[in-house]
Amino acid sequence: MAVITDEYFKERHKNLKDYTIVLIKPTSKRDEVGVDAVISEHARKNMELQAGGALSIVCPVFGNPELAGLYIFNVAVDEAREIMDDDPAVKAGIFRCEIYPCKGFAGDSLA
Predict the structure, then answer these.
(1) How many Cβ atoms from other residues are within 10 Å of residue 42's Cβ?
(2) Model-level pTM?
(3) Cβ atoms of 25 and 98 closer than 8 Å
């Protein structure tokens, strides 16, 4: 395991950046027949947001019927809320979302 010096620790904390976490939660409509087309548009919108730089991480979640996904946005809470209010699956009532401010280290990524 790497040794983290006090200097490294302090320097990393100086570089914390604001992000927004969004938890995507399914509603009872998620299991209705015919929602797959809306879910596809929801996924397409996610890809557009990633390509545009607003959405850094998209993680579908499996094994928990109360949680469908987790997003990390590279925008403020208010902008993330506007984006999610315009999401096709949220507008259709298939998903609802919880939105939280958070901090992270710029440059972190998934391997």
Answers:
(1) 21
(2) 0.89
(3) yes
User: Which CATH number covers residue 66?
Assistant: 3.30.70.1060
Distances (CA, A) of 78 to 5, 13, 20, 84: 36, 24, 9, 10
Residue 108 within any structural domain of the chain? no
- C-alpha 91/C-alpha 38 separation (Å) is 10
Q: Is the pLDDT of residue 106 over 80?
A: no
Q: At 61, list the tokens.
A: 């979640």
Distance from C-alpha of 111 to C-alpha of 99, rounded to nearest angstrom: 25
Residues 51-89 pLDDT 10s: 999 999 999 999 999 999 999 999 999 999 999 999 999
| Residue at 33 is within a domain | yes
Nearest alpha carbon to residue 67 among 101, 19, 22:
22
